[in-house]
């Protein structure tokens, strides 16, 4: 039963289908009509408003008062990519790449490594200061260095696992409820459908929140090395 339950996350095994699974990562771009990029519309204005708000928030997190949208482009794009994948994964028969550590680690690890390399090369003194929080007693400094070092090393793992775990948890609940549909009593069928609708709404919110959390934490890690 458990193997069948988790099999919903397995990509297709054939080489052709396997490649199509991961191509679905960029499927969200196909749902953006060309007219949205060329002529203003209500949906494009809403999306532009959202991106502007994200730009302003990321600008504050980066600690820069004046920065153009190019300065936060990486983090806004990261939010958009994860949001598209999380949202499309709620539709039937669409592969959810963000429910796999292969995808989430591919996003988190290179960013974290680049931040660390940039920080240690350009701001070495500042990076050493980060290992010992201000006001730490001299006796605890060796322990704080170890704790802060471990905390830094596990950051890409926690970023990746958090996103993957949240996506898997919601999909498992939806799968469990869906599998019980044929065996449930007809009198409880309406309750099951209502529960699935409510859970789907909750998962839609989780898809947005997790994309936002991933982008915000990545922005914070970037600001710490400057």
From TrEMBL:
<dbReference type="InterPro" id="IPR000568">
    <property type="entry name" value="ATP_synth_F0_asu"/>
</dbReference>
<dbReference type="InterPro" id="IPR045083">
    <property type="entry name" value="ATP_synth_F0_asu_bact/mt"/>
</dbReference>
<feature type="transmembrane region" description="Helical">
    <location>
        <begin position="159"/>
        <end position="177"/>
    </location>
</feature>
<feature type="transmembrane region" description="Helical">
    <location>
        <begin position="73"/>
        <end position="95"/>
    </location>
</feature>
<keyword id="KW-1133">Transmembrane helix</keyword>
<dbReference type="GO" id="GO:0005743">
    <property type="term" value="C:mitochondrial inner membrane"/>
</dbReference>
<keyword id="KW-0375">Hydrogen ion transport</keyword>
<feature type="transmembrane region" description="Helical">
    <location>
        <begin position="20"/>
        <end position="38"/>
    </location>
</feature>
<dbReference type="InterPro" id="IPR023011">
    <property type="entry name" value="ATP_synth_F0_asu_AS"/>
</dbReference>
<protein>
    <recommendedName>
        <fullName>ATP synthase subunit a</fullName>
    </recommendedName>
</protein>
<feature type="transmembrane region" description="Helical">
    <location>
        <begin position="197"/>
        <end position="221"/>
    </location>
</feature>
<keyword id="KW-0496">Mitochondrion</keyword>
<feature type="transmembrane region" description="Helical">
    <location>
        <begin position="101"/>
        <end position="121"/>
    </location>
</feature>
<keyword id="KW-0812">Transmembrane</keyword>
<keyword id="KW-0472">Membrane</keyword>
<dbReference type="Pfam" id="PF00119">
    <property type="entry name" value="ATP-synt_A"/>
</dbReference>
<keyword id="KW-0066">ATP synthesis</keyword>
<dbReference type="GO" id="GO:0045259">
    <property type="term" value="C:proton-transporting ATP synthase complex"/>
</dbReference>
<keyword id="KW-0813">Transport</keyword>
<keyword id="KW-0138">CF(0)</keyword>
<dbReference type="InterPro" id="IPR035908">
    <property type="entry name" value="F0_ATP_A_sf"/>
</dbReference>
<dbReference type="GO" id="GO:0046933">
    <property type="term" value="F:proton-transporting ATP synthase activity, rotational mechanism"/>
</dbReference>
<keyword id="KW-0406">Ion transport</keyword>
<comment type="similarity">
    <text>Belongs to the ATPase A chain family.</text>
</comment>
């Amino acid at each position: 039963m458990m193997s069948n339950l988790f099999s919903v996350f397995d990509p297709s095994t054939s080489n052709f289908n396997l490649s199509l699974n991961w191509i679905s990562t960029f499927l969200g771009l196909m749902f953006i009509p060309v007219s949205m990029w060329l002529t203003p519309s209500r949906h494009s204005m809403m999306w532009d408003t959202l991106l502007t708000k994200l730009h302003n928030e990321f600008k504050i997190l980066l600690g820069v008062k004046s920065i153009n949208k190019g300065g936060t482009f990486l983090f806004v794009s990261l939010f958009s990519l994860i949001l598209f994948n999380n949202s499309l994964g709620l539709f039937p028969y669409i592969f959810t790449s963000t429910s796999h550590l292969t995808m989430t680690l591919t996003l988190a690890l290179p960013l974290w490594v680049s931040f660390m390399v940039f920080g240690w090369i350009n701001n070495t003194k500042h990076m050493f200061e980060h290992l010992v929080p201000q006001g730490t007693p001299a006796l605890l400094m060796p322990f704080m260095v170890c704790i802060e070092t471990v905390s830094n090393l596990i950051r890409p793992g926690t970023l990746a696992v958090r996103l993957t775990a949240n996506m898997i948890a919601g999909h498992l609940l939806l799968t469990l409820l869906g599998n019980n549909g044929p065996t449930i009593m007809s009198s409880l069928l309406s309750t099951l459908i209502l529960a699935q609708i409510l859970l789907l709404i909750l998962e839609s919110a989780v898809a947005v929140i997790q994309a936002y959390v991933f982008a915000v934490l990545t922005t914070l890690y970037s600001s710490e090395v400057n």
